[in-house]
What we know:
Elements: E1 21-29, E2 32-39, E3 47-51, H1 65-70, E4 74-78, H2 102-115, E5 121-127, H3 129-140, E6 145-151, H4 174-180, E7 185-187, H5 188-192, H6 197-202, H7 208-218, H8 236-239, E8 247-249, H9 254-260, H10 265-269, H11 276-289, H12 292-302, H13 306-311, E9 323-328, H14 340-347, E10 354-358, H15 365-368, H16 370-381
Parallel strand pairs: 3-4, 3-5, 5-6, 6-9, 9-10
Antiparallel strand pairs: 1-2, 2-4, 7-8
Helix pairs in contact: 2-3, 7-9, 7-11
Amino acid sequence: MVPLPRDHPGPFPDVMLPKGIRSRIVRGVGDLDMHILEAGFGRECPAILLLHGFPELAWCWRRLMPILASAGYHVIAPDQRGYGRTTPQPGDYLTDLEPYATGNLANDVFNLIAVLDLSSVEAIVGHDAGSIVAGFCALARPGLTRRLVLAASPFAGAPPQGAPLDAPFIFHPVHAELARLNTPRKHYQAYYVGPSANEDMWHSPQGLHSFLRGYFYQKSADWDGNAPHQLSGWSGAELARMPHYYCMPARHDMAEVAAAAMPDARAIAACAWLSEHDLSIAAAEFARTGFQPALNWYRSALVEGMTGRDLIPFQGRRLDIPVAFVAGSADWGPYQAPGLLETMRDRLATRPVSLHVIDGAGHWVHQEQPERFADILFATLNAAG
């Protein structure tokens, strides 16, 4: 095997990892050398695959993984393309976005499963943007997984048979409506696909560690500004009901949004689900890579429309496996796209998707309440097929 490049960070040292979790680089996952965290390493153990979202990493499953491993599962959490210690990571804004298309991100998962010599997995669990990849994997490869669990961000699935391809989100008229409000706003996804987002966050005035602390805090149940509810439709006035991390003041960047609700020292010390030590590990990863490779996921989907394009071959297809959706009671994620939660519930699978809300959690439900998240996952694994 050809050694890793000399500038490759390699896996995490064992001393950095929670007990029972190991880190390694899996070579030749398509064009990637993929970093994964594992717990419950036995080949005889049924496998569960965990797919993170933005701005997270395999590291962000660290609180859930030992719980699943103790129940007899081989738990696998990769740094997905563009994240962490998975390489290569083209970091340019003007780069080929095809590798970041949803269909290719799913191919990364298929390649990982193959390289690990697995024919299938018991469940794929996806959080945030990872839920889109997880859902796509299940649609594209029936039989790959026996169960699907999505968290925080709904996935509508394949379009109905004969449905036209929607225009990319960046062309949605709601952006002009937001700009015309008395207090002009902009959608966070429109900001993420722009050329300044990476630099604003990576080299934020408060420093990367503090930026991430403020960002994670605002989207958690710890912040008292979250009171999510359904929105009536796709209008600028309705979207402006969401907190600034989803519907931003037009003249502010995300670093300013995170700074505006930064927790005080007492709140940081009381945050049991994200210690300063654990956050420092995530911050060090993004300090090395920046955010642009991860933001290219947004650009491929929202500017180029690649997710919609990649779903066209599966028009009319529904999943014939149990599917669960999990969200924190303080999470706006299920409601940020009006109507999407209901479409997922009724159209993604041949039976209704089971919906679960966990109190005491916000967007980072798998980190904030890992035991309760695991209970829902176990119930889904034991549900009749």
